[in-house]
Amino acid sequence: MSNERETILSVRHLVKEFPLEGGRVLTAVADVSFDVRKGETFAIVGESGCGKSTLVKTLLNLHAPTSGEVLFHGEDITKLTGEALRQHYRNVQMVFQDPAAAFDPKMRIEEILAEPLENYGLLEKSKRRQTVEELLLSVELPADFADRYPHNMSGGQRQRVAIARALALRPEIIVCDEATSALDVSVQDSVVRLLARLQRERGITYLFICHDLALVSLFAQRVLVMYLGSVMETLDAARLQEARHPYTQALLASVFPADGAKVIPHTIRGEIPSASDRPKGCPFATRCERCTEICNEKAPALREIAPGHFVACHDEKPCTKR
After folding, report:
1. For residue 185, pLDDT beyond 80
2. pTM for this structure?
C-alpha cells in the first residue's frame, strides 16, 4: 500500500461532553468517527460553534474525551499520560488563527523557534542560530528575521513563523485551526501555497479547520462537514459541488461567487441550537427546509451513498438543487 493510502489517524466514536450546573451536559462532540490518510489535507468545516475546535483539541488530548478512541498509527493516544504523552506531542503540532496571541511578545523569533527543540533536548547550542535560520528559510523568510520580535512583523510573516515553529519538531501531522482566516486574501494565497509546497516536500498530513469552502475545495483532498458536534457529511473535496446533505448544500449556497455574478447568497434560517439542548432527532432538523416527522424523532446514521461519500440524512435521495 502506498503512503498516500496509509491511515495515520483514526477517530472512533469520539464524544466530548462538558458538565453544567443542575446535572445538565453540553455535548460539544457527538459520536464522531473518521480516518485521515498520510500526506493528505483533511478539512473540517462548519459554522462557528459547530464543534470544530473542540474536536481538534480532543484529538490533541488537550481535552480528555468522554468516550471513544483516537488512534495514531494504531495506538490510542487518549490512554497516554506523562512522558509518553509529552513525546507524542512531537508528532502533532498546531498552527493557530492568531499567531500574535500564540507568541510571547518579549521573545525574539530566534527564541520562539528554538524553544520547542530545546524543550525536547534536540538542539545543540553551537547550531542554534543555524537551525533557526534554516527554519526561517524553509517558510520563505529572510534569515535575519531571527533577531526580530513578533510585533515587528506583518500578520502574514508571523503566520509563517508559526508554521516554522510547527515544523521544528518534524511532526507527521500539523493542525491548521483557521490558520489563514485572519489574513488578507493575497497573503492567504501565498501561505496556502507554502503549506502545499511543504506537504509535497515533507509528506506532512494537515488537519485543516476552515469555514471557507472555496479554499477547501482547492487545497484539501477530503472534507468532513460538522454541525452541532455531529458529522453531517464526508466526501472528496474535488466533488464538493456534489454534496448531498441539506446543511452542506446550504453552506455552499451561502458563498459569494468569485466571478462577480449577481447572485443572492442563500442564508440558513434560524440559529444553531444550544449544544446543551440538542434536538432529539437530526441535529439540523430545526433549520432544515426539508425536515420531516422522522427527522424530529430519530438521528440519522451516517451512510455511504457513493465510494468515500457518507451522508447523515433520512432522505434516501436528497435533493441536489441548492
Report:
1. no
2. 0.89
Which one, of 239, 192, 231, 199, lies nearest residue 312 by Cα? Answer: 231
Task: Report the C-alpha gap between 109 and 88 in whole angstroms.
Answer: 25
Q: What is the grid cell recorded at 46?
A: 462548519
Contact 31, 37 (CB under 8 A): no
Reading the block at residue 222, the C-alpha cell is 477530503
Is residue 129 in some structural domain? no
Residue 237 is placed in which grid cell? 473535496
Higher pLDDT, residue 277 or 146:
146
Phi-psi region of 312 (alpha: psi -120 to 50; beta: other; left: phi over 0): beta
pLDDT of residue 186: 78
Q: Which three cell numbers stand for residue 156?
A: 502574514
Total count of domains within the chain: 1
Give the domain extent around 60: 3-91+171-312
In the β-sheet with 230-236, what is the strand arrangement from edge to edge?
92-95, 173-177, 205-210, 41-45, 222-227, 230-236, 309-312, 302-306
Q: Which of 13, 45, 28 lies closest to 224, judged by CA?
A: 45
- Name the β-bridge partners of 44: 209, 224
> What are the Cα distances from residue 115, in Å, to 107, 118, 122, 289, 321?
10, 5, 10, 51, 52
Confidence of residue 168 (pLDDT cuts 50, 70, 90): very high
Residue 165: closest CA among 126, 123, 128, 110: 110
Q: What is the rounded average pLDDT of the residues 60-83?
A: 93
**At 264, is the pLDDT very low, low, confident or very high (cuts 50, 70, 90)?**
low
CATH number at residue 55: 3.40.50.300
